[in-house]
Amino acid sequence: MNRHLNLLFLATENLLRHKAKTVVVCLCLIAILSPFITAIAISEGVREQSLISVNAGADLYLTYDEFGRNSAIPLKYLDEIKKIFGVTKAIPRIIGRGFLQNKLAVIVGIDKEDLPVSVSCISGRIFDNANEVVVGHELAKHFRLNLGDQFSMRCQQRKVFTVVGFFSSDSSIWGASMIFMSFRDAGELFGKQDVATDIQIYTLPGHNSEIATDVYDIFQHEAYRLQDKQMVELYVKKGFMLKEGIFSALYVVSFALGVPAILVASGFGLSERKREIGIMKATGWQTLEVLELISMEQLLISFLGATIAIVLSILWVKGFNGTFIAQFFIAEITMLPKFTLPARFLPLPCLLSFFFAFLLTMVGSVYSSWRASTTSPVVLMK
Amino acid sequence: MIRTEHLCKSYSHSSQYEIRAIYDINVTIPKNSFVVFNGPSGSGKTTLLNIMGTLDRPTAGKVFLYGEEITPFSDIALARLRREKIGFIFQDFHLIPRLTSWENVAYPLVPRGIGYKERFERARLLLEKMGLGDRLDHTSEELSGGQQQRVAIARALINNPEIIIADEPTSNIDEETSVQIRELLDELKVRGVTILVATHDAMFEKVADVVFKMKNGRIE
Questions:
Q1: What is the per-residue pLDDT across B53-96, written as a single tens digit (0 to 9) for each?
Q2: Chain B: which residues have CB within 8 Å of chain A?
Q3: Which are the contacts of A209, defined by CB distance < 8 A and separation ≥ 6?
Q4: Residue B96 to residue A276, Cβ atoms within 8 A
Q5: Are A310 and A345 in contact (CB under 8 A)?
Q6: In chain A, which residues have their Cβ closer than 8 Å to the Cβ of B168?
Q7: pLDDT at A237
Q8: What is the rounded distance in angstroms from the CA atom of residue A325 to the CA atom of residue A315?
């Protein structure tokens, strides 16, 4: 035990003695690991928030199906749907997109009494009257909107709206560029009356398949699409995997640059190291003891590098709100997100980072050290 | 104590050329003797000492230590032998730069699991004996050649070896320190240590029990 402790202390001292090498390897590890940890944390945060939204949402989503895609559904069947046994609520809503000057906004039209309980974090109030809206904080900040301000918007129709409330920055990421209005106002803005983009159906537990059969009876001559929570959840997950793919492609490039940098940095002072190993061997060190010392050095440096990378990642997300990196995970945001970025630092990616760092540093050093420690001391000390 | 039989070492520089560093060396070195290998550069003194000290392996021939043939020993067994029985003093000192004097001296004790305090204490005692009590925390770059060689000697003695192998121990240092080192080695011999020295220094012959003259890889 004492021997291992001695080697551990000596490894620590060696890292301190070779400061330049330690710093360079640490920087390389940080450059590789920090974006990785940050990306995973943001991805997990966004995924969690999405799944919470899905779970807090309706049990079934009903739309029309055109060309294999969701399309608007007429409201003529709404009353029949509401009467199906097991349906507790059927809420039509309009979700669309439109430009508020140069900014793309998500427009949600839903009646006030049908607002989900999860809609909170609003300063001001919810719309009561026609042409009143609640605006996401990113849009409000961008256009310096205040309560009572009016703005006009044009989709299929032009309408003038009055701001009566704002989503705060603590609200979900979906609230950032959202404009919330009544179902009727949204219909007028998009020039579509008596249709909804979807109907949210809330049901009694265990009734979904029966309801699906009844919906089929109602829509038997129409192309409709009925999706339950699990399917929506699956789409959300797939969507994120797609976006993560873009990040992964970029990450591979930085990884490809970072790994050789580590390998080069690990080779700093190799001739000096070889001579040192020669002296160690001449004074009675065994090959395994030499390798243990070097492995401990790599373990310590990877622990240091990975720890700093994790701390910097936390700082990147919490302090700098995922600047630059968030755009790879959340659609239509800029390099500087204007809302509080959701992030989750899970233990597994952090542990993986330690392992990964150790692997990288070992690859960079262990082979040359093994070669050196199995070579004759005479050759090494020349 | 140490015996060699038909010891040869050759180096192949290409498939066509082979350089014989030593050839058919047969020596017997009794325990507690002071043996000097004398000869010009390239005569094979260092190669012979490296092989007898287990730092290198012969191309042919055998080396015996305490009657046991050590030539076929594994690297692990040879390293154990070096740790327990042999101390080396090199011409170029071979101290680890950036380590202080006492850390260099105590370095062989690290893998033996000896704690920091004991390592320091043992190194300090040896360095004080070498007249370097005030240089404990100096790195090798801050020491003169003579001081570095004394640190190297202290390192060679830290494991209480039975054999000291010194390769040109006085060639890079001043005359005064050379005298000190000769006296020190002689003192070690008195304490029962077997001393093997490769040197040009004729003064060593005065204190040696046996002198082997080497030329062109052979003992004359």
A1: 999 999 999 999 988 999 999 988 999 999 999 999 988 889 99
A2: 50, 55-57, 75-76, 79-80, 82-84, 88, 90, 92, 94-99, 107-108, 110-116, 155, 159
A3: none
A4: yes
A5: yes
A6: none
A7: 67
A8: 13
Query: Would you call B82 and A282 a contact, using CB atoms and an 8 Å cutoff?
Result: yes
pLDDT at A156: 83
pLDDT in tens, B123-146: 999 999 888 889 999 998 899 888
pLDDT for res A367: 79
DSSP state of B56: S
The pLDDT score that the predictor gives to residue B37 is: 92
Set of chain A residues whose Cβ sits within 8 Å of the Cβ of B96: 276, 279
A282/B55 CB distance under 8 A: yes
Q: How far apart are CA A63 and CA A73, in angstroms?
A: 5
Look at chain B and count its residues: 220
Q: Write out residues in chain A with pLDDT < 50, as ranges.
A: none
Q: Which residue, among A89, A68, A59, A85, has the nearest Cα to A217 in the 3D structure? A: A85
- State mean pLDDT over B168-174: 83
Chain B contacts of A22, Cβ < 8 Å? none
**Do the Cβ atoms of B37 and B49 come closer than 8 Å?**
yes
Place of tokens 């070096």: B82
Whole-number pLDDT of residue A140 = 83
Helix ranges (H only) for A191-286 are 208-218, 229-266, 270-282
Report d(CA A75, CA B185) in Å as an integer: 106
Whose structure tokens read 């070195």? B29
| A18, A272, A286: residue with CB nearest B111 | A286
User: Taking CA atoms, what residue in A is nearest to B154?
Assistant: A283
Closest CB to A376: pick one of B56, B82, B115.
Answer: B56
Cβ–Cβ contact A331 with B under 8 A = no
* β-bridge partners, B139: B100
Question: What are A300's two structure tokens?
Answer: 């310590």
The predicted pLDDT at position B127 comes to 93
| Contact (Cβ atoms closer than 8 angstroms) between residue B8 and residue B58 | yes
- Report pLDDT digits (tens) over A225-278: 888 888 877 776 666 555 566 666 666 776 777 777 777 776 666 778 888 899
Give the chain B residue nearest A289 (alpha carbons): B111
Q: Is the CB of B50 less than 8 angstroms away from the CB of A378?
A: yes
Q: What's the CA gap between B15 and B121, in Å, rounded?
A: 52
Query: Do the Cβ atoms of A283 and B88 come within 8 Å?
Result: yes
Shortest alpha-carbon distance between residue A285 and chain B (Å) = 6
Which parts of B72-177 are beta strand (E)? Answer: 86-89, 163-167
Give chain B's domains with CATH numbers: 32-57+74-215 (3.40.50.300)
pLDDT of residue A233: 77
All residues of chain B having their beta carbon less than 8 Å from the beta carbon of residue A278 are 94
pLDDT of residue A105: 86
Complex ipTM more than 0.95, yes or no: no
User: Across the interface, do A376 and B116 touch by the CB < 8 Å criterion?
Assistant: no
CA distances from B218 to B5, B54, B182 (A): 13, 19, 25
pLDDT of residue B140: 87
Whether residues A9 and B113 touch (CB distance < 8 A) is answered with no
